[in-house]
């Protein structure tokens, strides 16, 4: 019972409290997020993904947290970011790991977006037979 209440509280809290804005910078040393810097030597591939109408920049990291996910706002230019990062990193989307596959399966089975619209229902069209 306590686990169910904890998960419900977590879902409620995450859906009602908006995230705060953080400072993200690409510098000559690496990528700086708030007070933490990830040096170019410890970064791997990068790629872009779209999720829920937001463009994200994902970068592999060779230390914890293993992957940086940076949300790009409207003012961010993806082609400029690609040009800058391609000088230092390889642009390549890796194959999904077992963890990625499990997370995708869980997201499909237990969606947290309860306010979203239901997917459109496909109806069969009656087949039209030629008249003789």
Strand order of the largest sheet: 1-2-3
Strand-and-helix sequence, N→C?
Answer: HEEEEEEHH
Biggest β-sheet, characterized?
Answer: 3 strands, antiparallel
What structural category arises from helix and sheet content?
alpha+beta
Strands, total number: 6
Task: Calculate Rg over CA atoms.
Answer: 21 Å
Please give the alpha-carbon distance between the first and last residues: 67 Å
The dominant shape is: globular
Number of helices: 3
Helix fraction? 25-40%
- Poorly predicted ranges: none
Average per-residue pLDDT, rounded, comes to 84
Share in β-strands:
25-35%
Brief characterization of the structure:
This protein is of the alpha+beta class.
Plain-language structure description:
With 132 residues, this protein is of the alpha+beta class. It has a domain at 20-91. It contains three helices and six strands. It has helices spanning 2-16, 78-86, 98-109; strands at residues 24-26, 30-33, 36-39, 43-51, 54-61, 67-72. A three-stranded antiparallel β-sheet has the order 1-2-3, with no helix packed on it. Strands 4-5-6 form a three-stranded antiparallel β-sheet, with no helix packed on it. Strand 4 and strand 5 form a beta hairpin. The chain is globular, with a radius of gyration of 21 Å. The mean pLDDT is 84.
Note the main attributes of this structure.
132 residues; alpha+beta
Give the helix/strand layout.
Blueprint (H helix, E strand, L loop, with lengths): L1 H15 L7 E3 L3 E4 L2 E4 L3 E9 L2 E8 L5 E6 L5 H9 L11 H12 L23
Antiparallel strand pairs: 1-2, 2-3, 4-5, 5-6
């Amino acid at each position: 019972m306590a686990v169910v209440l904890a998960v419900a509280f977590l879902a409620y809290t995450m859906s009602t409290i908006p995230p705060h804005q953080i400072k993200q910078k690409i510098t000559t040393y690496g990528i700086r997020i708030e007070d933490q810097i990830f040096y170019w030597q410890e970064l791997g591939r990068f790629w872009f993904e779209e999720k829920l109408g937001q463009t994200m920049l994902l970068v592999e990291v060779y230390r914890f947290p293993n992957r940086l996910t940076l949300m790009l706002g409207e003012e961010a230019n993806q082609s400029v970011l690609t040009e800058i990062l391609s000088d230092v990193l390889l642009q390549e989307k890796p194959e999904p790991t077992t963890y990625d596959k499990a997370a995708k399966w869980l997201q499909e089975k237990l969606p947290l977006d309860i306010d979203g619209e239901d997917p459109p229902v496909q109806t069969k069209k009656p087949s039209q037979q030629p008249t003789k």
